[in-house]
Automatic annotation (TrEMBL), chain A:
Its main location: nucleus. This is DNA replication complex GINS protein SLD5. Residues 164-222 form the DNA replication complex GINS protein SLD5 C-terminal domain. Residues 73-142 form the GINS subunit domain. Belongs to the GINS4/SLD5 family. Required for initiation of chromosomal DNA replication. Core component of CDC45-MCM-GINS (CMG) helicase, the molecular machine that unwinds template DNA during replication, and around which the replisome is built.
Automatic annotation (TrEMBL), chain B:
The gene is gins1. The lineage of its organism: Eukaryota, Metazoa, Chordata, Craniata, Vertebrata. This is DNA replication complex GINS protein PSF1. One of its GO terms (biological process) is DNA strand elongation involved in mitotic DNA replication. Belongs to the GINS1/PSF1 family. Coiled coil: none annotated. It comes from Oncorhynchus mykiss. Residues 144-195 form the DNA replication complex GINS protein PSF1 C-terminal domain.
């Protein structure tokens, strides 16, 4: 998969990143895509990566225009473009779905973020979430809430919309060895339940226990 | 009994199963709101009485009514919100123009919400990547092959594919088209994917 891409668009990625070949870029996209698809909560945004991939796609499309019609190579590349576009769309889609599902919590998290910390939302996603919240609130108000008794005219969205369930289980593959991961953090037993994770081993664990490892890239959700 | 109407409208929605949108139950909502109004007024007068005449035996009743009020509010919010989620799914299925029979089942405010949602989504998709943006409502399934065989289920008129060729989509005609061009038409029920 990566072969066709790299000889198609070599030198197309003079972005802000130090050096990253298109193949590495697509690898990163696939990682981010799987993590986002399987984690219960919204992960950090990687909008820069998304932009790079978009750039690649446009670049590849442009290259395709130059190829003679009916060339076999062209259809292979076309397929490649389709695949990458699917992964990118699916990635952005699952992010958007989580934003819609958990919008009050997502916005709350964004509000409490310390200045300088990386944001979980891209500016566009942030705008979308804000509009979604405002739109939904206006709607509820217009249809029902304003007809209710004065003390019941507001709904606390934070309480009304369910939070992401961090205790759900996820499958993961380990990329960097980890020691002493607490599986059951607060049990009444005296002994904490601790495991070591070996490279390339696969596990089924609660998301909460390994959430920091997902964002640092030490484990990959599968 | 209080709150029964509220449960009823939720049941009605629940019975429809996934993704289907029943007609907006304006009457049901109105009845629940009326019940709430009655409960609230009774509570108001009882609160005044309890305060002025020190009748503490009224307090449990007041509390009970207040619980009913909260429950009604919650049920209505749940009903409306669940409908919104269904409407949202419709945007992803049918594209930005909804079929008339579905619009018929929505109330004016829901249409308004839908239009706003449509706009937010469009703004978001336009902002992705280059000048044209990226339509993420396309490519819903991983691509297996570049071209697929499709059959027309209804007359759709002329349809242009990428290289500029124009084909006529006539009922019962079959075509071999780029998959990503027909995805939406398939979802709208204009084309049918022929599996061999």
């Amino acid at each position: 998969m990566s072969d066709t891409l790299s000889d198609d668009a070599s030198g197309g990625d003079d972005g802000q990143e130090d050096v990253m070949t298109p193949a590495e870029l697509i690898g990163k996209l696939e990682e981010a895509w799987l993590n986002e698809k399987f984690s219960p909560e919204l992960l950090e945004n990687k909008s820069e990566m998304g932009e790079c991939v978009m750039e690649q796609l446009t670049h590849m499309e442009a290259n395709l225009q130059r190829v003679r019609r009916g060339d076999v190579k062209a259809s292979v590349h076309r397929m490649e473009i389709d695949r990458i576009r699917f992964v990118l769309s699916s990635y952005l889609r699952s992010r958007l779905q989580k934003i819609e599902k958990f919008f009050p919590h997502v916005l709350e998290k964004e509000k409490s973020r310390v200045e300088g910390d990386p944001s979980f939302l891209s500016p566009e996603e942030f705008a979308f979430a804000k509009e979604y919240l405002a739109n939904t609130e206006t709607y509820l108000k217009a249809v029902a809430l304003k007809h209710m008794p004065p003390n019941l005219q507001t709904v606390d969205m934070l309480k009304a919309v369910p939070e992401p369930c961090l205790d759900s289980f996820v499958f993961l593959r380990v990329r960097e060895r980890q020691e002493n991961i607490l599986v059951e953090p607060e049990t009444d037993d005296q002994r904490e339940y601790v495991v070591d994770l070996d490279v390339d081993s696969q596990h089924l664990m609660r998301y909460r226990a390994i959430a920091p490892l997902v964002s640092s890239g030490a484990v990959q959700l599968i | 009994m209080f709150c029964e109407k509220a449960i009823e409208i939720i049941r009605e929605l629940h019975r429809m199963g996934d993704g289907q949108l029943p007609a907006f139950n304006e009457d049901g909502i109105r009845q629940v709101l009326e019940e709430m109004k009655a409960l609230y007024e009774q509570n108001q007068s009882d609160v005044n009485e309890a305060k002025s005449e020190g009748k503490s035996e009224l307090i449990p009743t007041i509390k009970f009514r207040h619980c009913c009020l909260l429950r009604n509010q919650r049920c209505i919010a749940a009903y409306l919100y669940d409908r919104l989620l269904r409407i949202r799914t419709l945007r992803w299925e049918y594209g930005s123009v909804l079929p008339t029979n579905i619009r018929f089942h929505m109330c004016a405010e829901e249409l308004e919400w839908f239009n706003q949602y449509k706009k937010s989504l469009a703004t978001f998709m336009r902002s992705l990547g280059g000048e044209e943006g990226l339509d993420i409502t396309q490519d819903m399934k991983p691509p297996k092959s570049l071209y697929i065989e499709v059959r027309c289920l209804k007359d759709h008129g002329e349809f242009e594919i990428d290289d500029g060729t124009i084909i006529l989509l006539k009922k019962n005609s079959q075509h071999f088209l780029p998959r990503w061009k027909c995805e939406q038409l398939i979802r709208q029920g204009v084309l049918e994917h022929i599996m061999s």
